[in-house]
Amino acid sequence: MILSVLAQIRQTARAGDILRAWRMFESAGLLASQAPDALSLKGRLLKDRGLRSLGDERRQLLDQAQAAYMQAAGERRATYPLINAATIALLNGKTQEASLVATRVLELLESGDHEPETRYWIGATAAEGHLLLGNTEASSTALELAIAAAPEAWEDHAVTLRQFRQILERIGAPGDLFDHLRPPPSLYFSGIIGLPGDENEIREKVGVLLDDIRPGAVFGALAAGSDIVIAEMAQARGARLNIVLPLSLPAFRHISVAQYGGDWAERFDRLIEAADLVETLDRTNCLSAPAILNGSRVAMGLALRRSRMLATRAIALHVGRETDRIAQAEAEWRAQGLEIHDLTLDYSVPASGAGFGRAVDRTVLASTRPLPPCSDPSVGAPELTEEGFSILRFGDPVMAMDHAAAILHMAPESGLGSIAAPARRNPVWRKMPNLP
Hints:
Radius of gyration: 26 Å
Strand order of the largest sheet: 4-3-2-1-5-6
Distance between the termini: 33 Å
Order of helices and strands: HHHHHHHHHEHEHEHHEHEHEEEEHE
Number of helices: 16
Oligomer: single chain
Shape: globular
Largest sheet: 6 strands, parallel
Helix content: 40-55%
């Protein structure tokens, strides 16, 4: 199904790319549109821009956002644009205007004489109206009933909760007032290959953690051992599986699953079939420590993106041995101050199987225009490919992104692209036979 232009712009805005969403709105010729849906979206985009601005620019953008929503409502008994106009008025310091419009919305909802909305949005609108008037108890009750009517409409819940946090901050109420209604968290999982023949210990410990975390979606690989156990138990509890493999599926299945015997391969196949997402990052048949790290980073990023889109938490679960060193992916997660649960097994069958190939991480920036050189001499000069792209190769992805940000600041239309992947360190490379 092809999304409408408004839906595409709304989706981009929900993902947090406000500048791109506004440019899409402009490019679609919607700035002068008088259609209520376009005006409501205009109000939403102006509000997002305003909240990221300061001083007079913030006030002006919020004024324009409020006006767009009020224009969208017009003479209609439309609660959606009206409640948004009320909230923007409050965020812009217009407390009396906010109270007047919020009262009008609650009166419309009480009368039943208003434009149709889903049960969720009617309840959420009532909750917002009560919150704007300072009645937090009535607001919480109304939102609880709304969420009960649509318990899995997580993106809608997230939109509401983000707006409520802004209101709570403005009125000086506790910011965690509605935390009990947040969507379930995202879980990034990782762990060791090789488990005792009796999985009872790990299943008991993982079960306790999953029952406490109650993730809505899990993100990780599916190597034989703790990965597969965590994924199975999370799926049994209703979590959505998002699988990220560091190389092609057939190669990963052979190297990291099938060669460990038992029923791991069959369990792997069942989980792949049940997964909402299966992402493979490398079409080669080679496994290396940098490839595994790259896959971990993508899985972590997907977990974080979902948590931000749904206004919820991102949590990590790692299974290891007492003798294990902290993996780089786990260290990077900790460095961001994110929640992590370490599950240490008292004993475990040591991993066996083929060793890793040798590789290093590389991030490549590419553009159809000549790239400026990086100030760090370790990067080297820009190269020109046969296809006419100017490229720079970085060993440090953070340095690459900093250089890209500087380029985009100077030339926003530079058509810059990037890719991060492991690269072979030398021609001697372990490969699997008989795989494409």
